[in-house]
Design brief:
globular, 9 helices, mainly alpha
Length: 263
């Protein structure tokens, strides 16, 4: 399992760094691909229980990062309104009232959870002068926190944590993930001019929100009754299994940088 994880990381991480450095259409393409695969994983799994229109919802989900890339943050409220109305009308035109509210809710939730939250990485990348380093820092701190939670929890985890969501979560792993995210942010000060207090604060926030993202996905998987959302990344599971923490840390990091930190 560990060997598979390392092989996949050795292939995917250079591709990710290349796209971040290049930015523009190349990075947008990668973000769209992650979102599209994530939506297909989400709807493909949930569709077994609900009557969803997966293709239309996935298409809408990919349009979101494209419009955000072209128009910026100001387009987000309009996109939300348009998607809510589209999903409602699509369900209405099916002339099938059975589970209508649940289908509408799950469809909108998938788009918001995956497309909207991860699209903030495009806004982060476009921050003048520091966008590239900020995105690299975000991925670095989030995934180092994930690794810390996994390895520390596996090695020293004794006190179970949220057994209702996952039998493998432990307090040791939870705090280990936060600690490793903090260490990663402190390391990132080598290439990003973060004041020490700001670095400590955002390191803890990324650690906590990364754990929250992982727990949120565990809650969904427990509800559906699956172990992983997919197997596209051997040793990691599906795209959602790898990016679940980033879905929570990305918008928070963006707003922290934009509104709470003075360069």
């Amino acid at each position: 399992m560990l060997l598979k994880r390392l092989i996949v990381a050795g292939i995917f991480i250079p591709l990710l760094i290349f796209s971040i450095l290049e930015g523009g259409i190349i990075f947008l393409g990668l973000v769209c691909a992650v979102i599209l695969i994530g939506l297909f994983e989400f709807y493909g799994t949930v569709k077994k229980k609900e009557n969803l229109f997966m293709k239309e919802a996935s298409f809408l989900g990919v349009l979101i990062p494209i419009f955000i890339y072209l128009k910026g943050e100001k387009i987000i409220p309009l996109l939300l309104v348009c998607i809510i109305f589209f999903v409602f009308l699509k369900q209405l035109l099916k002339f099938n009232p059975q589970n209508s509210f649940k289908n509408i809710s799950v469809t909108i939730a998938g788009i918001f959870y995956i497309s909207f939250l991860f699209s903030y990485v495009l806004l982060l990348r476009e921050i003048p002068h520091w966008g590239t380093r900020l995105v690299i820092t975000l991925f670095f701190a989030t995934w180092i926190g994930d690794m810390g939670a996994y390895f520390i929890g596996t090695r020293w985890g004794k006190h179970k944590f949220f057994l209702s969501l996952s039998p493998h979560k432990s307090l040791e792993g939870f705090f280990g993930g936060i600690f490793m995210s903090l260490i990663a942010i402190l390391i990132s000060r080598w290439w990003l001019p973060l004041p020490l207090i700001s670095a400590i604060l955002i390191g803890v926030i990324i650690g906590i929100m990364g754990e929250a993202g992982d727990l949120f996905e565990s809650m969904i998987k427990r509800e559906i009754g699956i172990k992983d959302f997919g197997n596209i990344l051997p040793g990691h599971g599906g795209i959602l299994d790898r990016f679940d923490s980033l879905l929570f840390t990305t918008p928070l990091f963006y707003y922290f940088v934009k509104y709470c930190f003075v360069w």
